[in-house]
Amino acid sequence: MKPRRRHFASVLLIALSLTGVAYSAGAQQTRAFVAATDFATGSLADVTFGPPRVATPNVASISSDAVVRWYGGLVYVVNRFNFDNIQVLDPANGFSVERQFSVGNGANPHDIEFASPTKAYVTRYELADLLIVNPSTGARIDSISLAPFADADGIPEMDHLAFRNGRLFVTLQRLDRNNFFTPAGGSQVVVIDGSTDTFVDVDPGTPGTQGLLLPAQNPVTELVVDPFRQLVVGCVGSFGLLDGLIASIDPIALTVATEITEAALGGDIGDVATLNATDGFAVISDASFNTALKSYRRDLGTAQTMITSNGFFLADIEINDRGELWVCDADFTHPGIRIFNAQSHSELTPSPISTGLPPFDIAFDVALSLVAVEGPDSPLPNALSTLRALPNPSRGAVRLHLALGATTLPNSGDISVEIVDVSGRVCWSKTLPLSQAGKYALTWDGSLRGGKRAPSGIYFVRAQTAVGITTGRIVRLN
């Protein structure tokens, strides 16, 4: 059985970029989207942070084996085994299906990760080719063969993804399908250059192209991004044996370190979440398949039990930007979301928040996010100027490229961004702090004030600093 997890977002995503690392811009998240299932049917629940917390179950029908992701104001449902598609839902329009596209018959998709509004990667567990798609249309762009990293059965068992510093990180379990999916040895994380879609050789001194070799087998959790932009992954090894661990990956230095072992945690790792440099959390299962939530010290490798369950009930765990730890508890009698203060470990919910069917996977919204990414080294202009909009026309999210010279950032260095319709009405506005000049990418998902989707038509974006102003035009198609 495979765990799933991830972080996601609300009505309007703005991303400003400069170096490849994401930085929080204050309390941003407002709600959670929860995939719920009894493994016969599946549904999506919408849970607001509150206060008070309000859960709306069954806002959309999804597959019985699905994980949820968030990007650009939309919920992406990865419908997995025997469904083989990505379902895109619009929460601003009653969770209507924006689009749904196949990733190949029998592919069994496990994750989707976004490089831009027009480029995303999809892991396909039953195949050796990593798929590249345009998420705004669902069209296939290309694929990358991971066959050179497969074990003897020819399938690398690609699982989870993370995109950091212009690089894509892909976990490969490398399981022997001819021997009950036992680890075949050499589980790793393959690194791909996002600009060229070619492999990054992490060990040039060894013949061939090398990925990051993990210190234990069978990585099963999501690639979690900690507050310091490290990637954290849980490796279960062989189920029933305490041979796994939680590892952290430096996405710049391309090094791997062990945080805590399964022996210290007391069971097979099912999921992982991190609060800060020292505090982490894990879901484990014991020899009797009873699950428990553990807190652990990332720097010391020690653990303490927070809650236990009499069955295989605890699934996904996530930490939101309020420091709340959300736990999927599929207990037969009272299934629902349990919420804890991640710092004090005290439970904030007097009883589980019902999601209709038992909860399985959580995705948080993100209303505002500042992201730094590496850009080309061409000279900066002295003034503020619009570079280009992609894609344009657009049915979904559109990215505007701006360049801010040093003279555009006096004193406060704030930039004001507005979306304006043809009548001159400001549909959305935001003031964002900036600390330095550079090249930026601004992504608008097409949502208006109040969360409604912008109808078809022409819109103008106006970006302004204390000494400069620029405008661009967006054509929206529905």
Topology:
Layout: E1 15-16, E2 22-23, E3 31-37, E4 42-48, E5 54-62, E6 66-71, E7 74-79, E8 85-90, E9 96-102, E10 109-116, E11 119-124, E12 129-134, E13 139-145, E14 158-164, E15 167-172, E16 175-176, E17 182-183, E18 188-193, E19 198-199, E20 212-213, E21 224-225, E22 231-235, E23 245-250, E24 255-261, H1 262-265, E25 268-274, E26 279-285, E27 291-297, E28 303-308, E29 314-319, E30 324-329, E31 336-341, E32 359-364, E33 369-371, E34 384-390, E35 398-404, E36 414-421, E37 426-433, E38 438-444, E39 457-464, E40 469-476
Largest sheet composition: 5 strands, antiparallel
How many domain regions? 2
- Oligomeric form: single chain
How much beta, percentage-wise? over 45%
Write up this protein.
The chain has 478 residues and is mainly beta. The chain has two domains: 15-204 and 309-370, Methylamine Dehydrogenase, Chain H, CATH 2.130.10.10; 379-476, Immunoglobulin-like (Sandwich). 1% of the residues lie in helices and 49% in strands. It has one helix and 40 strands. Strands 14, 15, 18, 19 and 20 form a five-stranded antiparallel sheet that branches. A hairpin with a 2-residue loop joins β14 and β15. It is globular, with a radius of gyration of 22 Å. It starts with 14 loop residues before the first strand and ends with a strand. The relative contact order is 0.15.
